[in-house]
Design brief:
Layout (H helix, E strand, L loop, with lengths): L3 E3 L2 E3 L37 H16 L4 E3 L9 E7 L5 E11 L8 E7 L7 E7 L1 E7 L5 E7 H14 L10 H28 L14
Parallel strand pairs: 1-5
Antiparallel strand pairs: 1-2, 3-4, 4-5, 5-8, 6-7, 8-9
């Protein structure tokens, strides 16, 4: 069985950091409470170099934050788009991006998995959130071509979580008031530690170049 899927297609090899990250710049990650995170994003209607450049930036920002997925509104851009680099429960890696994602409604009676979930825009907090064990997302790639991505387990959780972002929802919206207060307390206690770690990662990735290869230093 392939150990990596890129844009939903099996691949024989993919570098540790996807090549797009070497072309991008780190952007600030928005935090819960900022307006851009709490309203539906606009559809992407223009495909071209500007969209590709945003995807490059998002991948680099994702790696600095050591995340599994990142939506455009998490870097302050009001667009229906997310990137991902995520392992499923079988250890298979999934890498790619989805423009204008639509999450298929799971069949009635589909089993929910209740597991810990975090968010780069709620730094330091992890809470149990029920999600379907399987997810199917339809959308487009950066060139406007139709795209379908399927996932199970943790990768399904990632797909659902990131599609939620494009609709203006954060995972805190799925919690009770008491649970949400608990998550915000976790964030307050751990936020500085998270940002310190991101600063370290930004330094470690500074030498990243196109094609996922580090600079030789020359």
């Amino acid at each position: 069985m392939p150990r990596v899927f890129v844009q939903g297609v099996p691949a024989g090899y993919h570098p540790r950091h996807t090549p797009e990250a070497g072309l991008g710049a780190v952007r600030r990650i928005t935090e819960v409470g900022e307006e851009v995170l709490h309203k539906p994003c606009r559809d992407v209607t223009e495909f071209g170099p500007d969209l590709a450049a945003l995807i490059h930036d998002m991948f680099r920002t994702l790696y600095v934050a050591e995340g599994a997925g990142l939506a455009a509104n998490q870097v302050g851009v009001d667009m229906r788009l997310f990137v991902y680099d995520c392992l499923d429960d079988e250890g298979i890696r999934h890498v790619g991006h989805v423009v204008n994602p639509v999450l298929e409604t799971p069949p009635a009676g589909r089993r929910l998995l209740v597991e810990g979930e975090g968010c780069l825009s709620v730094p330091g907090a992890v809470m149990d959130v029920p999600r379907p064990e399987r997810a199917v997302v339809r959308g487009q790639d950066k060139d406007g071509n139709p795209l379908l991505v399927e996932g199970t387990g943790y990768f399904a959780r990632c797909l659902a979580h990131e599609t939620d972002h494009t609709q203006g929802h954060v995972y805190l919206d799925r919690l009770s008031k008491r649970e949400k207060r608990d998550a915000l307390r976790q964030m307050a206690a751990r936020r500085d530690e998270v940002y310190a770690r991101r600063a370290v990662m930004a330094g470690e990735l500074r030498a990243l170049r196109p094609w996922g290869q580090p600079s030789s230093g020359r």
